[in-house]
């Protein structure tokens, strides 16, 4: 008989919802969905899983010790990854090839959370300004 251990995982809410939906559809426990997914993934070989696991570990360790955005990027580069802002989401890319690996929010960290934590927008992010209509009575002038 194989021994079992209780394990606690920190997962994004969106992933938990997908696990619960699959469990409901298959009429099994959510824990069984996770077990099956892990067994299937590991059966394919660890080479398919290794880059994402390495990136996830690197991010979690870097986030734990980072004091700000620049410190975070420095720590990530030492691990061979960097953050890139794409369409209001942070992407984790390989460094120096700068190829997409995964979305940071798939690891449970969001741009909004980190912006609040570091008390600053992501470096290089251009703040959006809402277009404001001209004041009433304003007349357009020909500048030419």
From TrEMBL:
It comes from Rhodobacter xanthinilyticus. This is Uncharacterized protein.
